[in-house]
Design goal:
- Three copies of one chain form a homotrimer.
- With about 350 residues, chain A is α+β, with helices and mostly antiparallel strands.
- In chain A, about 15% of the residues lie in helices and about 35% in strands.
- In chain A, strands 11-10-13-18-15-16 form a six-stranded mixed beta sheet, with no helix packed on it.
- In chain A, α3 packs across α4.
- The interface between B and C is large, with 50 and 53 residues.
Chain lengths: ~350, ~350, ~350
């Protein structure tokens, strides 16, 4: 993708990147440079009350940065992040899970355990994960299916699963001491039910949940309707899980530039199922095209409505359609700007919708 | 309710509760145990750089906790909270107020003063209250009624009442120095008006309001429509006031497990009038059944729409209907998880919708 | 306006203002007085562990404040703020910009630079501004117009413009390293396009945006529809840009009491275009009348709906109509109360809708 993005950049910028890398050796830290950038003054890296720090007296070992040099240094960091997108990392979450089918029952075997999770290249965190994924494996079934979820708990804490949005019988609702005892470390528990209501739902821990969900015990539970005649036609069906807890600002468990782009061909229809598993709202803004909102928490809206910025609160799911009418690579990000950018470049809850030529 | 919740729990857990209570004597604090739980390691309570702290060398007075023991200790705290629900506390807010009727006028006498308010069992706070209640007494009148509200100010600050949502004549809008002088300590002020527009409204202080409303000067003001033919039929009509300010995370002035359950019989329709008097959004999530949203700020939505998680912002009121189709006790809570749970158990903005058998 | 507001205030209050000003000399600070007010106790200004501080022993130089005196002192501060509204400040943002027309192209020349911006009387901040305004000049064009925006960058950082909400060709989307190189300090860049979709949109920096937008690089970009037959008739069309970043809580770049009232005559229809360029939600509450919501992000809602408190998230735009049926001066503010009031009086995101008699 770097070629696709940057083929038109002047070679002088690429040259600058090398030059600024060399400069960096002489500079205390990028943060200090940026700090002085923000002051909007042309000065060398901060040295307090030191007469020798005057630009005209700077020794050769402390290069003088012009305003332009400092802008270039900042831009180089921003460019580096964009060029790295989509950056490779170990581990992928939200991967569609194939059930075992036993006697007509779709069986999903989940194990929760502690893992190392690479949120962005070089930044790994402790995570509590279903089957080693953050978010957990994506479960997709059909309304009326008989489903069995076996949860093996390899964590040091008890846990449970709440199927958020599914209207299950009470004893399968997954709330410790209200509907079931907690599943102790080392134990396995089985949830089995006929899938009641269609839509974009979730599964997650409901025990010590501020901690356990924050650590990664969450996933998408998508239910296709039995009667699909009223379903909108979509060429791409994408689940985007928003998070902002122990692992930072993430989309499907990764932070920009390690986030995954949504890809469509010109003229296609993309269905995006937003789900917020964090603690904050995230108004997701799509560039270049609008979104048509069709469902909330798995229930059809009475009439579709359009927007380019959709505010998604914790626990909510919103389904939207995007008609990929505008070719190119389009920024797609949370519009709480500190969730998406800093002086060091774009970060966190940023991805792209890539609309490719129809013929590709 | 503890029987209803826990009759199926194995007696070994009840035994554990007693055992863990005994253990607690030897343990520094529950928080320290939990802290070590979170590290996911089996070790005794933290003692730094002390060779005798090695598990195999632990003296009898410092019992070694296995991962299971620690999970059990945490679970016991969670169980204790749920078992206590609904916990008894002194004082109840949002109690329906019967007006005096004088010459066809419904007269509501309110006195605001400082009181001690028990938010949950054993935790009392200073509150500023109307008639000693947090939220203040629930006022219910009918569109077109003539209403008189006498406010006696026994607080050390001036105050006023703003009838949030009512389209009153300007001089009754309750904004100091814009529509009226503040009501000084010791003074009484009378608001009298014909009730203009129906719906779920509020009354609260509008003077030094970040402080005064935060301290408790707020209540529900419900206006039944004159023509009730288009009103949805509801068997239960419940006002739920959300708050997050000086008294912590509360529903109708109480924190879990001292919150009040919403109770309905199977097949009944429950109308819930959400009102947010805090400073943060609260996406309220109902388990087991969905909500049908019918009104915003007292105005009918153009078409009802469904959800299971409804984001309620400060100052907003949302009316929803819940058809009680799913028997059992259902968690009902803010989905910003730290508003609802910690390692010590559920807390704050948690209650339950209890759907009882139709015959009870 | 002070006359309009305060003509009915007793002269004793005006006298008190003078008296309290005199008292202030002897008092440590107003904040300390307020602090003791909040404790709800009648005592003189705080002096710790000093026997002479007992009220009955207070020397003449340390006047004893009664509860009433303290309430009066607080009220005087609140009154002072309201009386000052709308306070004059240097600089006005969001001023409608007249383009140069060249060969049928509407040309908008923007220069971004650092300026001093008076947010409220006596409080100036460093701002990064388009043409010296915060928000930048209001751009209003018509769907199908050919528009050219020349941006001259006089800032020490690179920048770009993203036209938030406009469905432009990819190379004009204004995202550095994805759709264009950043515009370096001293450089000028030209965006030229046929205006695609109507509605209430925005323009702002998309480079180092958490900082640059926070510092003021933002403005309204309003597109009138080519076919205006379905447009609602509005006598007043008002753009209100909400912000909460480096400059504090502001409406159109100013904090109360320096905010600008919205003014209409009785019976007129006011269209308000809310835009949030901050990092937080702001539920805007109008007193005395309701708002009818007609559009989101420039797209018509499927059916208008009514409210008095509208939650506006970062990046969102909401268009509402207000029928000015209720004469008077009406508070109009964010209902996150600390964004609107403190013990020192109303502040930040507060303005008023003034409904004047029809004949004026």
């Amino acid at each position: 993708m770097s070629d696709q993005f940057f083929s038109k950049l002047p070679s002088s910028r690429r040259g600058f990147l090398r030059r600024s890398a060399a400069l960096a050796i002489a500079l205390p830290t990028a943060a200090e440079v940026l700090s002085s950038c923000s002051e909007g003054k042309a000065s060398k890296a901060p040295v307090r009350n030191d007469p020798s720090s005057h630009p005209t007296m700077a020794p050769a070992s402390a290069p003088v940065l012009s305003a332009r040099d400092k802008a270039d240094a900042m831009d180089a960091m921003h460019e580096k992040g964009v060029k790295a997108f989509p950056a490779k990392t170990r581990g992928k979450g939200n991967v569609l899970m194939q059930p075992r089918v036993m006697g007509g029952v779709k069986v999903f075997d989940l194990t929760c355990s502690e893992v190392d999770w690479e949120v962005e290249a070089g930044r790994s965190v402790k995570a509590w994960a279903y089957n080693g994924q953050v978010p957990g494996p994506q479960i997709r079934v059909r309304e009326g299916d008989r489903v069995r979820v076996n949860l093996k708990n390899e964590l040091p804490q008890s846990t449970v699963i709440h199927f958020h949005g599914l209207e299950l019988p009470n004893n399968l609702d997954g709330v410790p001491f209200i509907t079931q005892p907690p599943i102790k470390p080392g134990e396995t528990f089985t949830y089995e039910f006929v899938v009641p209501n269609p839509g974009s739902h979730m599964y997650h821990s409901h025990h010590n949940a501020a901690y356990q969900v924050g650590m990664g015990l969450l996933g998408a539970f998508i239910v296709e309707p039995k009667d699909a005649r009223n379903e909108p036609k979509a060429d791409v069906d994408y689940v985007m899980i928003l998070n902002d807890t122990m692992h930072g600002y993430t989309l499907n468990g990764k932070s920009f530039p390690a986030t995954e782009p949504v890809v469509a061909k010109l003229g296609q229809t993309v269905r995006i199922r937003f789900m917020n598993e964090g603690m904050m709202i995230h108004p997701m803004h799509l560039h270049g095209m609008h979104m048509t909102v069709i469902a909330k928490d798995g229930w059809d809206q009475p009439a579709p409505w359009k927007c380019d910025t959709l505010n998604i609160a914790p626990g909510e799911r919103w389904d939207v359609l995007v008609k990929a009418t505008n070719p190119g690579t389009w920024a797609f990000h949370c519009h709480i700007l500190p969730h998406a950018e800093s002086e060091h470049g774009m970060l966190g809850m940023v991805t792209a919708l890539i609309v490719q030529p129809a013929g590709v």
